[in-house]
Structures are given as C-alpha cells and as structure tokens.
Amino acid sequence: MSSGPAAPVPAPPRRPFFLLRGRFWVASLPWAWLLLFFLLPFVLIVNVSLSTPDLAVPPYVSPFSQPQAEGRPVFPPAFNPDLGSYRRLGDEVADLARPGAELQYLRAFGNSLLLAALTTLCCLLVGYPFAWHIARSAEGTRNTLLMLVMLPFWTSFLLRVYAWMGLLDSSESGLINQALLALGLIDAPLQLLYNSGAVLIGMVYSYLPFMVLPLYANLVKLDMRLLEAARDLGARPWTAFVSITLPLSWRGIVAGSMMVFIPAVGEFVIPDLLGGGGVLMIGRRIWDDFGPNQDWPMAAAVAVVMVLLLIVPIMVFHRHGGRGDGAGEAGP
Amino acid sequence: MTRAATLERRWGARAWLLLVYAFLYVPILCLVVFSFTAGEITTQLDGLSLRWYAALRHDDELGAAVRLSLQVGALAATAAVVVGTAAAVVLARFRPGAGSGVFAAMATAPMVMPEVVVGLSLVLLFTHPMLQPVLGGRGVAAIWAAHTTLCAAYVSVLVQSRLREMDRALEEAALDLGCPPWKVFFVITVPVIAPALVAGWLLAFTLSMDDFVLAAMLSDPGSTTLPVLVFARLHHGLKPEINALATVIVVVVSIAVLVANRVMQRAQRRRRAAMHAALRG
Amino acid sequence: MSARADSAPHFPAEPDYLRIEGISKRFDDALAVDNVTLGVRRREIFALLGSSGCGKSTLLRMIAGLERPTAGRIVLDGEDLAEVPAFRRPTNMMFQSYALFPHMSVAGNVAFGLRQERPRLTREQIDARVAEMLELVQLQRYAARKPHELSGGQQQRVALARSLAKEPKLLLLDEPLAALDKKIRQHTQLELVSLIRRVGVTCILVTHDQEEAMTMASRIGVMSEGVLLQVGTPDEIYEHPSCRFTAEFIGETNLFHGRLEDGRLNGSDFPAPLAIAAEAMPAPGTEVWLSVRPERVVLGRQPPAAVNGNVSINAAQGEVDEIAYLGSHSVYHLRLGGGGRRMIASVPSAHWGEASAPARGERVWAWWLAPDGVVLTR
C-alpha cells in the first residue's frame, strides 16, 4: 500500500545559496565576534610567547620577520621562534632536584594549583550541605535564601576582598585581632594577613557562590522520593547519601568545582591584596611580567602553559557542566 | 526516623545555614559599620559621622570613574545580550554542523578561563602592530569589547537554557500561520525568552561594573573604571571613604534586587491565581 | 489513492485534493517516513493512525512545511508545495501542545495569522473574522484572556479557531485531543467533527488512538515504522485488515499462523486444520495468518450444530482461563487443548440467557464460521 506505482520520484528541493539564508547571518555574528576577540587573541599569545623581549612598543619582536626582495615583501615570511621564555621554565624543571634553586615560576604554579584545589575543596565542603539545605527548605523561603547568597556577589568584588583586609589586619586594629584581644584570648596581635591562609579565606569567600549555585540547581531537581525509597529499602542515611544523592548530583559537583578551580588557578587580585609579597601565585607572575617587568613573551609563555594545564578541567567543564544543567543557572 | 532526630536535624540545618550566611555577611557588615566613623582608621569607630559620605560626594575622580563604569557596563551589557543571544540561538536551535563543537567551546570558555589569560590575550590583540590602527589600541573601546566577550558567554548560557525550555511548537505555529522566520524571532521568541534577556543584561552589567583585571590590563590613562580606581586606592593607603563607597553600592544593589524579586514574585502569584480561577470557572 | 478507489464507491472518481507522492524522510540514520504515497479528497477528514514514533507526525510536519522531505513530492490543489516555505503554505496546523502564544490574548492568538496576510487586511476585517471564529468555538466572552487563564478544553478551542481563521485549504491536527482528560475527550471528538464539517475544510489528523480515528475520520491510514500499511474507511480497516499489524493494532484479534494445504490452514496455533473462505485463497504452500475478531467467536457448552449450506465451521474445545466482565459483554480467555494455544472470545452478556455463564476452569466449545476469518499474507 505504501509504495504506489513505480513513478519517478522527484528529487527534494535544493536549499537556497548560503548567503541568502537567514541562518548564515545569525550565526556569522557570534562566530565573527568569537574568532576576533577569543580565538585570534589566543593565537597571538602563542605567537608572542615565541618572540624576543625588546624595549619597544609593544615590547617584543615577532618571530615572523618579513624579508624584502626588490622592495616588495616576500611570502611566506620567515619564522624564527625564540624559545627563550619556555627555556627559562624548562631550566626550572631541570633545577627541581637542586637544593636552594630559586624556581620562581614552578613554585608559583605549584602554589596556585594547590591553593585552587584547596579552595575548591573548601567551597565544596561548605557549599554542598549549604546548597542541600536551601534546596530542601520551603519553596517560598528558597528564593529568599538564594537571593541572599547572590547579594554579596552583586556588590563589588574588590570591596569584599577589602573587607577581609580590615578583618584580618595583623596590627592591633585588625577587627579579628581586636576581638581576640578584647576577649583576652591572645596577648599580642596574630599575624593573620599576608599569608596563604588569608588568601585561602579570601578565595573561598569570593568563589563560594560559584559552587553553591550549580549545586543548588542540581539538588533542587533531585526527587526526594528516591531517598525515601532508599530509606524504605533499609539504607542508612549515609548509605543513601553515597549511593543515591551523590551520584545524582555529580554533574552539579563537577560544574561547581570547575567553575571554582579554573578561575582560581589564575586568580590575581586576592593573592595581591591578601597575600602581600609572601604568597607567590602564577596569576601575579603573569601580571608582574606583563606590567612592571615588561617581559611580555614570558607572560605569554606562562599563560600558554597555564592554559595547557587547565585544558583538561576546561574540557570536563564543557562536557559535563557547561550546558544548562548546572552552569546555566550558575550565572549569578 | 524519630521525632527527636528530625528536630535535631532541622536545627543542624539551620545552624549550618546561619553559619555560612554569617561568613558571607559579617565582612560586608563591618564595611558598612565603619563607614560611619569620624576618624581616619578603617577599622575603628572613633565617633559617628557622615564625613566620608560627604568626601565621597566631592570626589571628582571617583565620580568620573563611576560614570565611565556605568557607561561601559550599559554598552557592554547591551552588546553582550545581542552577541550572546545570537550564540544561544545557534547552539540551541541550529542543527550541529561543521565547527559547531569549536563554537560551543568558544562560547562558554570565557566564563571559566582565568581572567589574567583572557586579559593578556586581548592586550596582545589590541596592541598588535598590524591591528592597532584598526582596533584603536587600548582604551574604553577595548574594555568594552573585552567585557562584551566575557559577558556574552554568561548570556549565551542563560538564554540557551531558556530556549531549550521553550516549546518549539510556538515558533512553528507562528511560521505555520504565515509569519516569516525573522519576524517569528522578534514577535514570538524574544517575548517568550524576555525574562532571560533581562536577567542576562543585568548580569552582564554587574559583571562589567565589577571587572578589574580586564579593565586594568586594557585601560589607558584616559580610561579608569571604578574597579581600577578602587584597586589603586587600596594600594595607596586605606581610607573610610572606601567603606562609604561600599555601603552605597550595597544599598543600591540590595534595593535593586529586592524590587526585581518583588516584581517577579508578584507576576508569578498573579499567574497562579489566574490559573486557579480558570480551573474553577 | 488509486489502489483503494474501487473499495470506496461513495466517492466517485473525484481527483485527489492532496497528493503525496513517494515522500521519505531520513533523520541521520533512521528512516522516519518510508516512501509514502497517499491521496486525500476535498472535504475529507483523514486520520493517520499509528503508535508513537511511527512517522505519522513527521509526515504531517512535512505537509505543513516544518520538515523538509528527503525525497518525494506534495501537491495540494494542483500546486506543488516543494518550494513553498512553511509560512507561505495554505495549510494550518493545530499543535499537540496547542502552542498558544503565552504573551498574547485569545483574540491576539486568533488574529495572529490574519495579521500576516499580504496584502494586509484592514483592522475591521481582522476584528470581524476574529469575532466570527470566537463565536464558532463559543469563546466570545474570553477574547481578552491570556491562554494560561483558560482550561484545557478552552485552550484547545482557541487553537482550533486560530488554525481555522485563515481559511486554510488543509487543516492539520496533531493529536488534537491527547492533552485532554478522557472524560472530555469523547464529547469533544464529536464536537470537533461537526465543527470541521460545518466549516467544510479538508482535514488530516494524526492520532495514536484508534477509537479517536474511527470516531472522527471518514478514512484512516495505518502507519508503522514509517510505512503506510493500509488506507480505508474505519469498517474496512477493522473488518478487512490487510496485514497482521493492522489486525492487531486496531481492536483485538486472534491470529492463527500456518501454511495453506488442501484449502485449509495447517498450523500449531489451533488443534485442527482451519477452514477458510474460498474467495480469498492464496496459492497452496503460502505462509499465512488467519485473523478472527473475538466477537465473531461463539461460545457454547455443546459443540456447534452443523450449519446448513456450504459454510464450514472451525471449532475446538477449550478451558476457560480468565474472564473479564465488562458490563455489556465479557471477554473469555481460553486455553485450547494442551500447550500454549490460546484464544479470546467476546461474548454478549445476554448470550447465556437463563443459564449461568461458564466459570473459570470450565470446558467449553468455541467456534466461528469460516468467512468470519480474514486471511493475511503479511
């Protein structure tokens, strides 16, 4: 019944030429924007990381030189990469075993990764039960509670870090020191500011909403009947948590952790304001090489290495958390 | 579970919530309290006064920075909504084709990429000897472009999830009733996703207002945004004037958020009441 | 559809209003619609019936222009629709979710299509047409309401008014009643049919509900896995299914599998070789299935008396396994002889008269007349 007499079946119509299709033009705007302001800049970073520092504007000599023949540029231009910046990083790796080596970049990388990991862990430990309790509170209060998480986020980031400078101040006028002295718990002010601990507190404080929101978005969708079923089948609370809640909220955990870890690795402001000169982190190294040191090739090389280090977490974020599910609502 | 255990649990939950909220709010509260000091020290209340608010009012440098930040924020937010929405439409509506994986990655990457890296890469773009004449080098336009790129990523994720929630049959119905595709987008899609567009604009605006790293790396002497100015002042001696500034920001943001929340809740309540009425009658 | 035209004598040789020729749709690797050819006449209500995922909705969307066919042609009223984009097609669709624009009032929704007309209609023309449409579906009082302020049935009527407002050449209904409660549904079915008849629009509706299709449509096309299996009036499809799928999908049936030998069907599904009606005899040795509707089966405590004439009877003794009492009739599940052979019989409650109905475990006779079985070859 389905196939009639074997009449010649007409071919489907052709699509219009791509320049005449609206879709092409809709797609071309974000494509063009991202190619110009995201991809091209990254190509330039790689290019500059292979160039030689120079006292010029901009302060580097591109690895591409354009030889002239008979007054006209020759194609392709010559490519003479200067691996000096990467060699400095390589030398530090070689020096790893030597006692007393300076290792400014490696140490900065190590500090950054460690602090970012610690920040992520603390945010998760604080944020998970927090997000859980918000998600399980009454529907009416939920919005208010969530709004209260977001509110500090919407006020100035710099000023919130500044608030911790006042709290952690190591002199007698530091607020925490004032309180402890007044309570008689200590005799002399504690050295609270300008160390890794201060940086960690500042980072957890600043990044906590990034962890709470994806987790909340995930946990609020969790069907409580699953937990009731698990309990009904005799699972103890801890078992139910490990075997039901945790696997089901995995995407939220991944999204939140990546949204904290990745930017935290490159964080510059918090180590600068709360860490002082003592805490060397890679974001500050890039900043110093870019600013005061005027060594742009070195800054670019460090940035390239950082992106390479972060490429795996970024892929994980993109794969598991970057779509609607967690990160969509993560937009604070 | 016994009643006592449930109670204990509920109190445990409350205590945890309270503790974390204290962690979030005590620093801000301190800022506010010490903005009213009459003295010069940012962590001591040497008498009450509004002198730092007066200082704030007469601070021309600060005023200029605030105005610039507001302008850049509004322009960047508007551009980000345009670019981000177009990206979201591509991601949520178009059939994946060649390069769509790269596109999806590029569209969300600015959200998590460390800002120092994004900033450095954009500095290299704007100062590149061949591109500088075209793009105009560092300055307000560069900051605007950088903020647009960053904020468009957030907008695209927000709008994308809204687009995916939306019933596609709405667009198809409009098409079926004779509405050409470009008009469908403006007459049907935009009104339906409007809340996401508004939320995206506000988010983009606050992100731009708050950004320090990109603005600092891309600024030239004529383009000091508020965060760049604040950062400089944090390095050159702290004054309670900054506390006063923080207090003003907190108050303004709180009022804005409260109003927005109230409007949203009222709309939701009205909708629910109408539905009840419809089901009864 | 030429192949069936002979079996529908009440429609004389009128040319097809809508012709679908060799339409296929391929999604990535799956063939959603497989070379469907079909004709629909003017003012007809035609139902595409099939389970979910059988391709019926995709076919409908291709007619509306929302899906681009991989191959084939659609001709409506002599116009080839291939190059016509959805927004210029003279078809209008009522969506399963109704797809009412949430930010527009009821009147705004109904007027939407009219506002797209070129050359433009005047405001008076639009208002008049909207009023006419709202009167048609009896929603005049609700013109200013928003869609979410209406009940499900009211929303459905708005969607219908909206899709009729432009006087389409073809009305497409995608599961028109699926979103309604079962109670309202039956009432709405008849209301919808009378309204479509009154307007006089040609209509294709897609449904997975065989009752809905049989109630509403003048002809039905049965689809499975992208293939159009059979087209016919409701009684043709029920009484003369052309294949096993149709027989089992529409109503319930007993299927006996076997091979034709000596004019009888030999198989293991029934204790004895089965007599079949002579007129529909395929070649000997063919693998066939015999479909017998449960209401054609007669039950009795005694074996059937010989029937006069040359009509043969198929009879077997079985044990009552399960009885489903459904008020007007009961469905008996029988176990025939030994093994897994089973059949069902639908018996009117009045059948047993003064005697009590058989109980579970009781042995009874079941029989039917040979012409009541339909021989299927696929």
Would you spell out the secondary-structure blueprint of this structure?
The complex is a heterotrimer of chains A (332), B (281) and C (378).
Chain A lengths: L21 H28 L2 E2 L6 E2 L2 E2 L2 E2 L2 E2 L4 E2 L4 H11 L9 H32 L3 H16 L2 H12 L6 H9 L12 H24 L4 H9 L4 H12 L1 H16 L3 H7 L6 H9 L5 H26 L5 H4 L2
Antiparallel strand pairs in A: 1-2, 3-6, 4-5
Helix pairs in contact in A: 1-13, 2-13, 3-7, 3-10, 4-7, 5-11, 7-10, 7-11, 8-9, 10-13, 12-13
Chain B lengths: L2 H32 L16 H7 L2 H34 L6 H13 L2 H13 L4 H4 L4 H26 L2 H9 L4 H30 L2 H6 L7 H10 L4 H41 L1
Helix pairs in contact in B: 1-12, 2-12, 3-7, 3-9, 3-11, 4-7, 7-9, 8-9
Chain C lengths: L1 H4 L12 E10 L2 E11 L4 E5 L6 H9 L6 E6 L2 E2 L10 E4 L11 H10 L7 H14 L15 H13 L5 E5 L7 H18 L2 E6 L2 H7 L2 E6 L2 E6 L1 H6 L4 H6 L4 E8 L2 E3 L7 E2 L11 E6 L5 E3 L12 E13 L3 E8 L5 E7 L14 E7 L4 E3 L2
Parallel strand pairs in C: 3-8, 3-9, 6-7, 7-8
Antiparallel strand pairs in C: 1-2, 1-4, 4-5, 9-10, 11-12, 11-14, 12-13, 14-20, 15-19, 16-17, 16-19, 17-18
Explained architecture:
The complex is a heterotrimer of chains A (332), B (281) and C (378). Chain A is mostly helical and 332 residues long. Chain A contains 14 helices and six strands. Chain A has a domain at 115-330: MetI-like fold (Orthogonal Bundle). Chain A has a two-stranded antiparallel ribbon with strand order 1-2. In chain A, a hairpin with a 6-residue loop joins strand 1 (52-53) and strand 2 (60-61). Chain A is globular, with a radius of gyration of 27 Å. By secondary structure, chain B is mainly alpha-helical. In chain B, helix 7 (140-165) crosses helix 9 (181-210) and helix 8 packs antiparallel against helix 9. Chain B is globular and about 70 Å long. Residues 1-9 of chain C have low confidence and may be disordered. In chain C, strand 7, helix 6 (182-199) and strand 8 form a beta-alpha-beta unit. Chain C is an alpha+beta fold. In chain C, strands 6-7-8-3-9-10 form a six-stranded mixed beta sheet, sandwiched between helices. In chain C, strands 13-12-11-14-20 form a five-stranded antiparallel beta sheet. Chain C has helices at residues 2-5, 56-64, 106-115, 123-136, 152-164, 182-199, 210-216, 234-239, 244-249; strands at 18-27, 30-40, 45-49, 71-76, 79-80, 91-94, 170-174, 202-207, 219-224, 227-232, 254-261, 264-266, 274-275, 287-292, 298-300, 313-325, 329-336, 342-348, 363-369, 374-376.
